[in-house]
Amino acid sequence: MVKFNIKNLNIWFGQIHALKSVNVEIEANEILSIIGPSNSGKTSFLRMLNRLNDLHPEFKMSGWLEFDNEDIRKINIEDLRKRVGMVFALPLPLPLSIFDNIAYGVKMHGLKRRERVSEIVERSLKQAYLWDEVKDRLDVSAFKLSGGQQQRLCIARTLAVEPEVILFDEPCSGLDPISTAKVEEAMLKLKKDYTIVLVTNNVKQAARVGDRTAFFLSGELVELDKTEKIFTAPADQRTDGYIRGKFG
Amino acid sequence: MRNTQRTQKIAFFFLFLATLLIVIPVGMIVVIIFQKGIPAINWQFLSDIPRQGMRAGGIYPAIIGTLYLVLGAIIFALPIGLLAAIYLSEYAKDNLLNRIIKLAIVNLSGVPSVVYGLFGLALFVVFLKFGASILSGSLTLGIMILPIIITTSREALESVPQSFREVSLSLGASKWQTIRHIVLPNAIPGVLTGTILGLGRAAGETAPILFTVAAFYLPQLPKSIFDQAMALPYHLYVISTQVPNVDEKVRYGTALVLLTLVLFMNLVAIIIRYNFRKKKKW
Questions:
Q1: How far apart are CA A87 and CA A52, in angstroms?
Q2: What pLDDT was estimated at residue B132?
Q3: Sign for the pseudo-dihedral over CA of B133, B139, B143, B145
C-alpha cells in the first residue's frame, strides 16, 4: 500500500528553490532512509510530509502530494499532524514534566480521563524503551533526563498520539553510540506498526535500518532504491561518491 | 605591552566611573527622601484625611486614590496589551498594516505624558462624558502604559524558542493550543516585567491625571469609579507649590509613601516573577 504519493514536487523558500521535481512513493510499513549532504533538501522534504514547512513565511509549493490517496492540502492540518508524527534532530522536550510531555498530544486532542491518559503514557514509554528508567519519577522535569533518554522521550511522545507515519529528522545526531543503538532498535521494532521516514547524516545508519534509501543532492532526488542496491551497486555516480565519502 | 595594559586600566576606570555615576543619584534620592520623610510617618499620617488646608492630618485619600488608579490602569492595559502582543508576535504577517501598527506602538511610547493628559480630557472626560473621574484617569494612564506592556510582552513571547512551537504543532495541537499551553506559560515572567514597569510609571505620573481625575483637595474617599480622587503625585505637587507653609517633613513624607508604594508593588511583581522563573525548565 502506498502511504505517500509525491509527484513533481517543487518547493521554494523565498528565492531558494529547495526541492526540484521530486517524485517518490512511500510504502506503508517500510523504513525509508533519506541521505544526502547538508542543504540537499532532505529535511525540507521530510517537513513537507507533516506540512511543517507551512510555518515558513515565504514557503511556496507546486506539484502533487497525496497522503492515503488524499491531497495533503485538503486534510485538516491538525489531523494530518496527528497521523504523521515527527521526532526532531535535537531532543526537544517541552518544558513540562515527563508525564505531561507524553500526555500533551492526547490531551490537546481532547482526552480527559486520567486513567486512560496514564495508560497511554505507560504504553508509549514502554514502546520507546524508557519506562523502566523513568517509571518512578514521571513528575520530574523532562530536562532532568540525559540526552539519549530525552530523545526516547520524544519518540514516546510521538507514539502517544498513535500516528500512522513517524518522521525522524536526524534523530541520533546528538547521541552517543549506545543511545543511537537503542533508538535504532526502537525504530526497527516500530516498523511493524508504523511507516517510518528517516533523514540521517549517518550513511551507516541508513544502511543498518533502511528498507529503501533515497539520496538527495541540491534539492534533487538523485536515486531511490532498495538499501542493498544503493550501497552495493548504485546507478548514479554521485550516489556512489557520497556513500564512499568522496564529498558531503 | 605595558601600553596596552595602561589603556585597559584607563578604560576600566571610566567604565566603572560611569556606572558609579548611575548608582549615586539613585542612592541619594532614596537616602534624602527617607531621611527627611521618616519623621512625618506615623499612623495618623497614613490613615487620616488631610486637615488644616493639607498642612496637617494625613494623606490616606491620596494613597487610596493612587492605588485605585494604578489598579484601574492595569485592569485596562494588561489584557489589551497582552492580546495585542500575542497577535503581533504569533499571527501578524509582515505587511503594511502590521508595520503601521508597530510604528504606532513605538510612537505611542514617545508621546509626552502631558499630551496623554490633554487627550484623556478631550476623549474620556468631555466626549465620553465620564467627567473628571477614576475611570477617566485609569483609562488615560492605561493608554500611556500600553506600549510598555505590548513591547515587553512581545519580546517575552518571541523569546520562547521556536522549536517548542514546532514540537507542539507536530503533535497535532492547534496554533491556539500551542500559544495557550506552551508559549504563554513560558512568557509570563517577561509579561510581568512589563507590568512592573507599567505599574511604576502609572503610579508616579502627574500630568495624565491632572485633567482627568485628580482632585486638589477632597477629604473623603471615592465612592465609585465616577468620582474624583486625590492621588499621591498630584498631592505632592500641590503641597510643594500651591499651598504655602507646608511643613517640609509632610512633603518628604508624602514622597516617601509614594516611593514605598511603587517599590512595594514592584517587589510583589518581582516575587511572582521569581517563582515563575524557578519553574522554568530549560
A1: 12
A2: 86
A3: positive
Contact check, Cβ <8 Å, B281/A85: no
Structural domain for B225, as ranges = 58-279
d(CA B232, CA B70): 11
Hey, is the C-beta of A140 within 8 angstroms of any chain B C-beta? Answer: no
What percent of chain A is predicted at pLDDT more than 90? 68
Among 3.40.50.300, 3.30.70.260, 3.50.70.10, 1.10.230.10, what is the CATH number of A2-243?
Answer: 3.40.50.300
Burial B239-251 (b: 16+ CB within 10 A, else e): beeebeebeebbb
pLDDT digits (tens, 9 = 90+) for B12-30: 999 999 999 999 998 999 9
pLDDT at B242: 85
Q: Which amino acid is located at B107 in the chain?
A: N
Q: Is residue B249 in some structural domain?
A: yes
> Which of A216, A239, A218 shows the shortest CA–CA distance to A34?
A216
CB contact, 8 Å: B181 with chain A?
yes
The CATH number of residue B99's host domain is 1.10.3720.10
Compute, in degrees rounded to 10, the torsion defined by CA atoms A196, A200, A205, A210.
30
CB B185 within 8 A of CB B82: no
Alpha carbon of residue B128 to chain centroid = 25
**Does residue A102 or residue B227 have the better pLDDT?**
A102
Q: Which residues of B touch A158 (CB under 8 A)?
A: 170-171
Is some CB atom of chain B closer than 8 A to the CB atom of A52? Answer: yes
DSSP structure string for B240-253:
HHTSTT--HHHHHH
Kindly state the average pLDDT of the residues A190-205: 91
A78 touches B: beta carbon within 8 Å? yes
Residue B279 has pLDDT above 70, yes or no: no
**What is the tally of structural domains in chain B?**
1
How many CB atoms within 10 Å of residue A176? Answer: 11
